[in-house]
């Protein structure tokens, strides 16, 4: 079944119930954006999962191409501690744990830890080998990554979220499953314990601080009041342009004069498909009323690879010091790769703001807003 993302509530009890149901139904959740109307970290589940995967090391044979390594066979992993990280490169919840995963891979590599990134895509462009190859290099991911574009490894692990972490001991069994962000100190201590078990040398290193930069920086959970919002009509919420969507045909839209919090709209001629909206004319805009420190937008250039220029405004003005990693203080940016773009990082006190991105060339594709 094709995975879907949905908005989950912050309650840990409800999260456990939802994850259990989702796993049984074969559904996937990008775990971070269950935050409408609340604050705090996303839902996170940590539990023993020894019965979930009979032979973890054999599941990787179901995947596709490998990056940064030849294909790892069961004999390559025998007697090793293995950290399996399900991720996808355009998902903000997958990006923010990367500084920790990179640090663990480097810190414990010579003591028996093998980190394997399982890249399971959410969007069509994330199935492309060259896109994933470029993204892993840009993100500094140097440990082995296996492509799981058909969800075969995902199903073998009975997985249900991005990000997800499976901690496999020297005995070849999954000792813990963790879904979602956070709990990094606890995860590192578990890695140390697994490395120390079964007669290995004791590993008792102090937990060194890790700090991400740019889009990989820790979010400001206390100030997030906006949740993951899809632009394609299959999963869209909060769309406020008059008349609603006219799916799968090029249509003219107008942004409402006033947007309430977590409403958004289109301006110009757009073709709104199930997964993304594509700008059909040379100029067009998207506006969003949001409350968060960071605003990100997953976008892709036209299929022929042309670069699309864009301009960002906050409350009708240039962003200045509140510009994101992918824009300058004047709000200027270039859409040249299919990925997540950080467009706003506020330096002032966080409040409700109106974001607008104007595309100056045709063909831009917009997929999903995320926040941090």
Please describe the topology of this protein:
Layout: H1 12-25, E1 29-30, E2 45-47, H2 56-59, E3 66-67, H3 74-77, E4 81-87, H4 92-95, H5 98-108, E5 113-119, H6 129-138, E6 145-147, H7 152-156, E7 161-162, E8 164-168, E9 174-179, H8 184-196, E10 229-230, E11 250-253, E12 264-272, E13 277-279, E14 284-290, E15 294-300, E16 308-314, E17 332-335, E18 339-345, E19 353-359, E20 365-371
Parallel strand pairs: 1-7, 4-5, 5-6
Antiparallel strand pairs: 2-9, 3-6, 4-8, 8-9, 10-20, 11-12, 12-13, 12-14, 13-20, 14-19, 15-18, 15-20, 16-17, 16-19
Textual characterization of the structure:
By secondary structure, this protein is an alpha+beta fold. The protein has 2 domains: 43-216, Glutaredoxin; 221-371, Galactose-binding domain-like (Jelly Rolls, Sandwich). The protein contains 8 helices and 20 strands. The strands form 3 sheets. Strands 10, 11, 12, 13, 14, 15, 16, 17, 18, 19 and 20 form an 11-stranded antiparallel sheet that branches. Strand 8 (164-168) and strand 9 (174-179) form a beta hairpin. The chain is elongated and about 65 Å long.
Question: What would the principal axes of the Cα set say about the shape?
Answer: elongated
The CATH top-level class label of the largest domain: Alpha Beta
CATH architecture of the largest domain: 3-Layer(aba) Sandwich
Number of helices: 8
Percent of sequence in beta strands:
25-35%
- Structural class estimated from helices and strands: alpha+beta
Distance between the termini: 29 Å
Number of domains: 2
CATH homologous superfamily classification of the largest domain: Glutaredoxin
Mean model confidence by pLDDT: 87
Q: Report the CATH topology name of the largest domain.
A: Glutaredoxin
In total, the number of strands is 20
How helical, in percent, are the residues? 10-25%
Low-confidence stretches: 1-29, 31-51
Q: Major sheet, described briefly?
A: 11 strands, antiparallel
The topology string of helices and strands comes to HEEHEHEHHEHEHEEEHEEEEEEEEEEE
